[in-house]
Backbone:
């Protein structure tokens, strides 16, 4: 129809799904369909192929030319879903919430599920019936808009981890169990049977392997 506003397209991806400490962050980048080229012009692509400084630069450019949002799931939320084998469901709900916020014609998502169609259907359930969801593996590498979303998620998760390090005045590493700095940090801060800090994913097998079972969560307001 003449004069009709271009429909919005949103790309969505996550960072920190496999991390041991800190949040899982879901990022989204939305633009009118006829402005997709502006996202490509920022140099956005799969965040894993970019240096930290380049990711920060591209995020600043994205914030000027597109609408950028993110959501976080805390370690406690992740632990609850892992206990019920529902981590994919948690991620799909976050993807869907972000998609619904934009009311887009189309949402492009990076599928964490082995079955991309199943994951897409779950995202669509949370996004609402008006959103057409395209879900596929490696979407962050294959679709510029999803690559842009991966940058949003990665930069904002990295900032959260740096904020934790500043709060504790201690080197915490990347937050992943493959990082020796992170393993040393957790061993220093948490002993077997100790109260569970808010930043640790206690459901991870790495927790039991490295430090044994941990105790209950700390009381609200108690320092980690």
Residues:
């Amino acid at each position: 129809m003449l004069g009709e506003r271009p429909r919005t397209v949103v790309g969505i991806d996550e960072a920190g799904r496999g991390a041991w400490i800190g949040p899982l962050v879901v990022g989204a980048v939305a633009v009118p369909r006829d402005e997709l080229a502006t996202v490509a012009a920022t140099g956005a692509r799969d965040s894993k192929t970019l240096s930290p400084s380049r990711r920060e630069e591209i995020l600043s450019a994205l914030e000027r030319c597109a609408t950028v949002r993110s959501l976080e799931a805390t370690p406690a939320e992740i632990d609850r879903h892992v206990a019920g084998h529902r981590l994919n469901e948690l991620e799909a709900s976050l993807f869907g919430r972000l998609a619904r916020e934009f009311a887009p014609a189309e949402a492009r998502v990076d599928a964490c599920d082995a079955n991309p169609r199943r994951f897409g259907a779950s995202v669509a359930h949370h996004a609402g019936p008006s959103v057409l969801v395209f879900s596929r593996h490696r979407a962050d590498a294959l679709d510029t808009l999803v690559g842009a979303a991966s940058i949003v998620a990665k930069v904002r998760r990295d900032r959260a981890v740096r904020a934790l390090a500043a709060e504790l005045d201690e080197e915490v590493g990347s937050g992943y169990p493959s990082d020796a700095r992170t393993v040393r940090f957790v061993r220093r801060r948490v002993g077997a049977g100790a109260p569970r800090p808010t930043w640790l994913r206690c459901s991870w097998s790495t927790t039991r392997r490295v430090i044994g079972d941990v105790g209950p969560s700390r009381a609200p307001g108690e320092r980690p």
